[in-house]
Amino acid sequence: MKRAIAIALWAALSIPQAGLAAEAGDAVFSERGPWDLGQEALEWQMTVEGPAAEGFRPTADSRLILSQIIDPSDQQPVLQLQQQGDTANRKIGPFPISAGDPVLTYFLEETVSDMAALTGGSPHYIRNRMKDAIFRGGEITEQDGRKVATFQPFAQDQNAARMKGFDSLTLTFVMDDPKDPIRELRAATDQTPGYRNTLVLQ
To answer: Distance between CA atoms of 17 and 191, rounded to whole angstroms?
Structure first.
């Protein structure tokens, strides 16, 4: 139930909020939907690395698959995520096809969960700081003809000394057209050994 509520909170970010989001946040969240995949499935290669800690599950060989299914409750199309790999095989969703990006939502919430496990911090606090960074900060650059949006949600955080290196966390999103799926989603810290969570569209 807690995970479902958290995902709903991230999904709410996809709703336009006039005058609130910065350019980088708009680029990541705006116009990502509606999704109509039909019989097609999209696949991201998933890699998660970090120091050993209770509740943290690194993975070297996982896939995240986005597909469209029919909701048996009302026979309407919905989206479903499926994680397959060396640490978990699970289905996540369903998500409406009308708005939002399920992969983005999943990535952000998994990063929150990982950071909480590795630092002992509050998921609520971590999630809110990430939201602030996405809405009010970040920068956009160009790389090989693609937009790259980056955010550093904890760079000036008053609790940085207790974050075990996560004050250096950078969220990176590599994008093509706003209506296309995000090609690469990356969360990484600077320290060694550090934390790294990546999804790369195949």
So the answer is: 35
Query: With 50 as the cut, is the pLDDT of residue 15 above it?
Result: no
In the block, tokens 């309407």 appear at 76
**Token pair listed for 118:** 């590795």
Q: Would you report the helix, strand and coil content of the chain in percent, each value rounded to 5?
A: 30, 35, 40
pTM of the model: 0.87
Among 10-14, 163-167, 198-202, the range of highest mean pLDDT: 198-202
State how many domains the chain has.
1
Token representation of residue 116: 């909480």
Q: Is 133 left (phi over 0), alpha (psi -120 to 50) or beta?
A: alpha
Long-range pairs of 128-133 with CB within 8 A, sequence gap ≥ 24: 129/153, 129/154, 129/157, 130/171, 131/13, 133/171
**Host domain of residue 30:** 2-201
Across the strands, what pairs with 196?
Answer: 49, 188
